[in-house]
Amino acid sequence: MPFLRATDIKDGQVLTEKLPYISRNQPPAMDKCRLEGGELIIVRSGVNTGDCAVVPKALHGAFAAYDLIVNVNTGKALAEFLSAFLYTGFGSTQIDSVKNRAAQPHINAEEVKALEIPLPPLDVQCRLVAELDAARTERDRALAEADRLLTSIDDLVKAKLGLPDLEPPKQAGYAIRLTTAMNNNTLSADFFHPERMQAVRLIQSLTNAPLSQIVNFQRNIIKTPGESRYIGLASVAAGTGQLTEAVETASGQCFSFKPGDVLYGRLRPYLNKVWLATFSGVCSTEFHVMRPFDERILRPEYLAVVMRTSLIVAQTKHMMTGNTHPRIANEDVANLLVPLTDEKTQQKIVEETLASQAESARLRTHAETIWREAREHFEQQLLQGGKA
What we know:
By secondary structure, the protein is an alpha+beta fold. The protein has eleven helices and 20 strands. A hairpin with an 8-residue loop joins strand 14 and strand 15 (274-276).
């Protein structure tokens, strides 16, 4: 049966896509943790203390001890209304005032019972919840389209280069000739994974070059970063080439970079963290700082785009070493094959990528505006006694 954890509750919703499952044959004590669907669940301990949501009615499972179930008197209130209220300034202020600020923040059942809840008539509660649901649907639609635009960049690059999609391997096992292993100077089985070999063959069908022949790896070590902006792995979003809102502080040596350099994360390369620098600064040594030798052959903007495509990821994710912190070795990065094309095609790929990124950013701003205004309207309606 599905098992609902504290981390599966976010922004008033239960995230069901990655729920773990546990055996139904649990000790009798677990009966107190059963879910029938429709309950209001509140996170009572951890970094997201106070987050809450209504359990989907179709979700019959169990919940973690970090969560608290509230049985709602449906003659007076809707669970969905209570969940929405607890995310307003009125609700969150109350929770923050009683939240224990120890090393592990938490609230208890008695503190939740004492929360003051406004109770407009049920028909008003229903209308307010419906308005929020409509806004959430529009927000989610905009966010989904924003994500689609970013992921479609991979298809754009392959289409402009005239390459087909990478087909997922159909076989569970594979074999190679000893001479192939000897010619590649490796006995690593994953190096010859069919997915990686297919990506290499596709790139080899075009003009191509290993990174070592077209970029200079900048390794200017800075021991005291000073006031320079620091870019760590958390500062770069996976797969999008965008900076996150994370604020990181340098600890130890750094590499310096300049505008136009491409930063490529070598730790867990399947996360696909690639950023085209737009300012000067310093970065973690977990990045490779790459600068094209000749921008007439390889534009840095094109390099940043192509390094995020499946053509590269299909190579790198089968070349990692290490278990706890898997990385791609420096020499393997230098030998990565990159597809090349004429300057005009590179420019076209860059322009269309930038257009998709700009539209994605606009949609995200639109989604945030919709949701913020919906919540503000919800609060205003409460202050007005639910009058439309």
